[in-house]
Design a protein that fits this description.
The structure is a single chain. The chain has eleven helices and nine strands. By secondary structure, the chain is an alpha+beta fold. The protein has one domain (about 1-235).
Length: about 240
């Protein structure tokens, strides 16, 4: 009930003047993340004690209707979806906290992980994390670097960027997220003539075909490697929660 009242109170102002800096989410990222070597970890227990901070940001997202959203620039829309995906991923972890892995949260009898669970109330309908990532971002934006920007609350994922995605900085931020991920030798590394890469490239490698002529060429170019015919092997994916104890 309290959350419903809060949505009602901010709906008019949010409709007219949405905060494209995503300031509430930005403050959460700065306060509740910590970098540990190559990995950014999240303070879930600490935010659980102040969950209203996250709810206030989610209320902002939920107050926007489709007509208003369609007026956003393409960069504003993509920033919205990236921030929404990451924030709702944190929310689903808090809803089931404590958990050792996001895969412990089931969205169906035969489904590990919450990705198909329709718990996200946006634009007058309930969406899932899969709806945001696959049916919205991947379908409508030819931008494979989003795979370095969305975070699945796991050690194996690309780290959360410790700031919000915004339209004005989106290109720089996507490059920053990509570089941070690709230079993390726990997830991607070159040994002799073999590239040991994250399974993200195994799962979503085809997304790099149109824009970068394949994920292998993208990795070689981004890491400024000699242009050779590297063998590709994929590392095991670590699904343990990316939690700062």
């Amino acid at each position: 009930m309290k959350r419903f009242i809060l949505i009602f109170l901010i709906s008019f102002s949010a409709f007219a003047n949405f905060n494209h800096e995503h300031s509430r989410w930005d403050r959460i990222l700065k306060e509740y993340t910590v970098q540990d070597n190559h990995q950014v970890l999240f303070k879930y227990k600490k935010l659980k004690d102040s969950e209203s901070k996250l709810d206030a940001y989610l209320n902002e997202l939920e107050s926007i209707n489709k007509t208003e959203f369609d007026k956003f620039s393409r960069e504003e829309q993509l920033a919205f979806w990236l921030n929404a995906y990451n924030a709702y991923t944190i929310k689903i972890i808090l809803n089931h906290y404590p958990v050792k892995s996001i895969k412990d949260i089931e969205s169906g009898l035969f489904s590990s992980g919450p990705w198909k669970m329709k718990f996200i109330p946006l634009f007058g309908k309930k969406m899932s994390l899969d709806d945001i990532e696959h049916e919205t971002i991947r379908k409508n934006f030819d931008e494979p670097r989003i795979h370095f920007a969305v975070n699945c609350a796991s050690i194996g994922c690309p780290s959360l960027l410790q700031e919000t995605f915004t339209a004005a900085k989106l290109e720089v931020q996507l490059e920053k997220a990509a570089h941070h991920f690709l230079t993390n030798t726990d997830k991607n590394e070159l040994k002799e003539n073999t590239l040991y890469l994250s399974k993200i490239f195994k799962w979503y490698g085809d997304d790099f075909n149109q824009k970068y002529s394949g994920f292998k060429k993208y990795v070689i170019k981004t890491l400024n490697l000699p242009n050779r015919n590297y063998e590709i092997k994929f590392k095991e994916y670590d699904w343990n929660l990316n939690e700062s104890k």
